[in-house]
Amino acid sequence: MPKVLGTVPEAVTDPILIEIFGLNQHFLRAVQAAGSDGEVTTLTGVPAAKGVARGIARVLSNADELHRVQPGEVLVCESTSPNWTPAFAKIAACVCGGGTLSHAAIVGREYGVPTVTAVGLATVAISDGDEIEVDGTNGTVTVFRKADAQAKPAEVGS
């Protein structure tokens, strides 16, 4: 299901939509960039758990797929809930939607796993198997695809 329907608004002011669902200015800019047919290689979200990690992205749509996550990989998902918690013991980093009060943000801080939240387009812009770098201190996610490893990443949402 899409996060928004219709015209992308200029701003979101509802604190629930911002803090829990991560629908902030970064998200709105990323939606606009994705609609322009430009390939997104740098995503900006909300820094949720400090640190930097690089690894292979494992894009999951639900907890039933958690068995696919290998040690050292980066979990990319829409959101997490308590049944996702054991994965934080083996992942290198986490990228997801949601805000600073989301489950992933809290567990990322508890486990010391670099986490960036409010990256609402993460599961669209990042492919399963891409190598990505997660900067949980600054809230950025950089995608290094094999085909464009030499290309300079384009900035989105800065």
From TrEMBL:
Name used for this protein in its record: PEP-utilising enzyme mobile domain-containing protein
Organism: Prauserella flavalba
Domain PEP-utilising enzyme mobile: 70-139
PANTHER family xrefs: PHOSPHOENOLPYRUVATE SYNTHASE-RELATED, PPDK_N DOMAIN-CONTAINING PROTEIN
Pfam families: PEP-utilizers
Superkingdom, taxonomy of origin: Bacteria
Listed InterPro entries: PEP-util_enz_mobile_dom, PEP_Utilizing_Enz, Phosphohistidine_dom_sf
GO MF annotation: an example: transferase activity, transferring phosphorus-containing groups
